[in-house]
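Exercise: predict the fold of this chain.
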Amino acid sequence: MLISTLRKRLNNISISGRLYLLISLMGLVVIIGYGALFFFDKSSFRIGVALFSCVLILILGFALLKCIKSAFDSSPLRQTVAEEEIAGLLEQQSLSLQLAEEKIIRERAKREASEKAKQIFLVNISHEIRTPMNGILGFAKFMEESLIDEEHRESLQMIIKSADQLMAILNDILDFSRLESGDINFVDQPFALEDTVRSIYRLMEPAAKLKGLNFDYVIPESIPLVLSGDAVRLGQVLLNLTSNAIKFTEKGDIKISLALVEALEDRVTIEFRVKDTGIGIPADKHQKVFDFFEQVTNDTSRRYAGTGLGLSIVKRLVELQNGEVFLDSVVGVGSEFYFRLPFRTVNDQISFETMDLRSKLPDTVTETGKGVRILVVEDNPINQLLVIKLLEKRGYDTTVAENGRIALEEYKNGDFDIILMDLQMPELDGYETTRIIRKMAGDKGDIPIVAMTAHTIKGELEKCADIGMNDYISKPFDSAELYQKIEMLVGSTAGG
């Protein structure tokens, strides 16, 4: 039992440890043997001790030689075993990492597929909603101009207002989806700043008048007339803030004001302020109102409705353009939202060209469409009827084609000055129809084509331009915008 225990313990000692132990024991035996020879007088005892020491030294020497041999023989084997063990561990770790990586890739692919499915769903639902909304808003506005009875006119205006609110909600949802997925881009091109601000003012002025609010805007002369940036996104931010100000203000004033914050050689920073005398926002809610789906209180949400997305979209749009958003507000006194955006400056030549082009665009459509021949390519019967009524009211000569194949036959056999082209149609869509027309010989291939679509996905305008379309109008469209685009493209080329 003692020997087996001792053997187990020795086996647990490393080879170098065993060598040191054997050498130490041999040294100890030698010392004891020499001590016995020197300190004991009896010769028989000294002889016995000497013999015992010699035998013990021989045994220890044999054990030492065996241990040394074992060390030389087993060291490569142990090293090989150790290397194999390390290689096994590394292989196991590599396999674990590979499995983890594959899992991450699968999860990422699953998430991307889910995101893509969500985007496709939103695009499709947007298209399906916008198509009937084009008919609702179009016919309502068409009837509004011809109604004489004030009560009927007021009822129709409520229908239009409700439809506009529905479109605002739809646009908020789409903008939220794009911002969440990062599927949003910004353009950098020259624009007249006053035009952008004035367009928002004109758009929101009727809503302000309806509530009896004083509404105005101020642009100081120190701000350059023409800047380079994204005028559409700027208008979207101003529209959201102005719409909010009117919504939450029952009496008093709404004011849009601009100020030059910083002016460098190649860029300027402009501050835009939208001030109201509305219900105000508590101090502890100032940051919360910029979060998605947040409104100040549940009572506010019930009373004023809305998605709770407007201000969060404003914040994201401004920050994505390297700007900042601020808020000053006192409950019962009013709120002032303001943001700062950088814009590139332009040279005098570009500024002159931009202002010159602006002066050629009519504020109101006064020209008639008599003698202008239009081919309307639209598969939806309601939208067909709406476009025909709007165009005929203006004096245009119209021909309707239900799809691209019929449109090509009509176009080959007739003379037209412009084509209004729906994009999503059965048999032959607007994209392919446009490609075929652009390949036609002579003047036939150069006719102006305006895309009319309910799709609002990123890149749609660029796609239309790439295949040869001249302009783009999204549904639901405004009749004045439609007339203006037609007149800009047709000009003096219309037939008599």
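Check your answer against the key: The longest strand covers residues 334-345.
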